[in-house]
Amino acid sequence: MPELPEVETVKKSLEGLITGLVITEVRLFMPKIVKTPSPTLFSDTLAGKTIKRLGRRGKYLLFHLSDKHTLVIHFRMTGRLVYSPPQTEPAKHTHAVFRLSNGDELHYTDMRQFGTMALMETDRLDTLSGLKDLGVEPLSEEFSRDYLKKQIKRRRIKIKPLLLDQTFIAGLGNIYADEALHRARINPEKTAANLTAREIALLYRAIREVLEEGIANRGTTFRDYVDGMGQAGSNKEALRVYDREGKPCLNCGKPIARIRLGGRSSYYCPKCQK
User: Fold this and answer.
1) What is the pLDDT of residue 1?
2) Residue 147, class by beta-carbon neighbours within 10 Å (0-12 exposed, 13-18 middle, 19+ buried)?
3) Which of 36, 171, 257, 266 makes a 20 to 30 Å CA pair with 129?
């Protein structure tokens, strides 16, 4: 699933190309991806709207449009939104095409069909399920070391599932949670409330570092993720534990282990993260 760095990279790769353009036509090939309003109203309302600016909230991509409307896209597992020249044949699993006033198009594809779209009045975004419940943005000023310490000390659950809770911190997923915990030398099964002040300080720094590094490297591509120009990210080469089961820890050389935690795979170093 695209996480904060991947969605931020899609935003950055598209905003210079499409800001100021008008969406002239919407073609939906799989109407069920639209959660609100009805697919027909979705297409009709979008037609004629100018793209004012792009934004991101957690793992959600936001198109702020004219007439005080916002298009909300959540890519889920395999969603892609790619800028395409005119006459580009839609790829397999293309579920929506947005034609733009310069003649180019945005193609939304999603092999596993889990991604969603919604069109809302901008002042009603805080009523949209999922989006309205998001926690703090981890690269914002609001996310401070003191904030993290205060919030963690209230939680009697394991730290890895807590980091994946989007109502706690918005945008963190499996990849960057594992990477942050490894850098902070925290075992993913440790109870959050039992973290020391030093561990919380290290975790705070690690969360910001891995996200900033992921953005700088234009996201992590294993198979599905590409940016808005269809280009893979290079952050896979920077990963220290995620998807490296059995390979040596880059700190100590001990093989990376994998466990199931909260229904998800978690990668960690048994020596560095006791």
Assistant:
1) 81
2) middle
3) 266
